């Protein structure tokens, strides 16, 4: 199957590589075109613009940083809209808000094209190993057609109904994750400041009711101040912001998420946005009596 892939950041590069390794023909595009070269070594073709990729492929997947990027790639000159139409499908796997997704859906479907939003849970390593959790919503026919690709990219796919539901599910999950990262970081700092060995805390946590892959995977690196990016902090803060907006729209009070968002904003303002979101630990560590 020939698949187009737009956006070769941390996630897009791993996902498109995975498709290539599993026998898909892939045509890639990235805003910074030089990032396509590594994929070409593994058999990918390059499209010079999003429109060129869509022209060539029946199915095109996008994995872009944020709502502005997702909209730009569809609506701007040489964008997806110039070539999408009947018989073609567009799958946006970026994490965006439901409004952005709906806007893209309306534009694509008005040309006769099919649209699916399919944000993912899981980070760099699950993307490399095909262990993502796919949160799809939109065109059911396109979802079914995409299952061979989703089976390569993920360990489980959910079809959640109408466009917007995938985006909402993803934002709820990441709102919880961002709050957890803040609580975890505060716990690490508190254990150190109160004279405990934080490595002991990691061991205790891992044996109890709140053991989880995030604490287990990131804890030891955090204690060494290693925040090599798997999930960039700037994207986690974007997700907190979008989740808080969803809370506003639905009159849901979220003081814990709001406080976590403030920590991520502070970390961004201190230049930590391109590090892993675990770098929020560094700003919590800085607070003194
Ligand atoms: N990293 C993770 O663990 C996960 C990330 N996500 C979500 O997936 C998406 C991608 O994340 P990730 O790969 O980590 O992000 P990166 O920051 O590594 O990559 C972002 C991509 O978006 C492109 N881009 C940014 N702005 C524009 C624009 N205006 N026009 C066109 N392209 C643009 C970048 O192009 P260029 O190379 O030119 O800058 C790059 O290809 C985000 O929505 C993120 O929230 C979801 C699950 C996990
Ligand atoms: O959006 C990013 C999610 C990262 C993860 O699920 O580990």
Question: What report would you give on this structure?
Answer:
By secondary structure, the protein is of the alpha/beta class. Helices cover 54% and strands 13% of the residues. It contains 13 helices and 9 strands. Strands 1, 2, 3, 4, 5, 6, 7, 8 and 9 form a 9-stranded mixed sheet that branches. Helix 12 crosses helix 13. The model has no long low-confidence stretch (mean pLDDT 97). The structure holds NADPH dihydro-nicotinamide-adenine-dinucleotide phosphate and 4-oxobutanoic acid. The site of 4-oxobutanoic acid has 6 residues, from loops. The site of 4-oxobutanoic acid (SSN) has 6 residues, from loops. This is Glyoxylate/succinic semialdehyde reductase 1-like. It catalyses: glycolate + NADP(+) = glyoxylate + NADPH + H(+); 4-hydroxybutanoate + NADP(+) = succinate semialdehyde + NADPH + H(+). One of its GO terms (molecular function) is NADP binding. Belongs to the HIBADH-related family. NP60 subfamily. It comes from Populus alba x Populus x berolinensis.
